[in-house]
Structure formats: structure tokens, C-alpha cells
């Protein structure tokens, strides 16, 4: 696909960029700095909201340069499957239940993880 045709497929480009940036371990803030793009502009790109073709082209070229990808490489990009090592105990009794304090702490940790996903 030609670089000029990407503007018409902003939503596809946005989805692929999100996948690629996450797969490479960047946060939005760190990637925006590395690509020399403002965070709000990066957000617009990642959501497919840029309606100016020259702005879109200029910033997409910066992004592809940082990611070391071609246009075709971006469009064909597939996320690397992640494996997660889970640690658990087989020694806990079957009827084990967390006490109230542990439930609150666990809930707080899950809320923090949810916030991190929002700002990633």
C-alpha cells in the first residue's frame, strides 16, 4: 500500500500503531518523547482522529522511523503473544477465603492496574 493511501484508512493505521507501540514496551508518554510528537497529537493518531492529511503524514513518518517499520510492515504487524508466568500455591485449602483486609488490598491493586490501562 502507498503511504498516501494510509490517510483514508486512519482507523486501521491507529489500531496497528497501538499494537506495535504496546508490543515494543512503550508507554504513550515515552513514545511521544522518543518520536518528538506531543502526547495529545499521539493520542489523536492512535484514535484515528487526525483530519489533516499533512499532519497525519508528517507524524506517521516520525513514528515509522522510530519503530523502524515500513508502511507494509506496519499493516502486516501482528502482536507477539505474551506468556505470563502465574505463581500460585497448591497448598491453600479448597475453602480458603481472603480476609476483609486482604480483599480491600487486592481490590485496590486491581483498581491501580485498571488506571494504568487507561493511561497506557
UniProtKB/TrEMBL annotation:
<dbReference type="InterPro" id="IPR001387">
    <property type="entry name" value="Cro/C1-type_HTH"/>
</dbReference>
<dbReference type="Pfam" id="PF13443">
    <property type="entry name" value="HTH_26"/>
</dbReference>
<dbReference type="GO" id="GO:0003677">
    <property type="term" value="F:DNA binding"/>
</dbReference>
<protein>
    <submittedName>
        <fullName>Helix-turn-helix transcriptional regulator</fullName>
    </submittedName>
</protein>
<feature type="domain" description="HTH cro/C1-type">
    <location>
        <begin position="17"/>
        <end position="74"/>
    </location>
</feature>
<dbReference type="InterPro" id="IPR010982">
    <property type="entry name" value="Lambda_DNA-bd_dom_sf"/>
</dbReference>
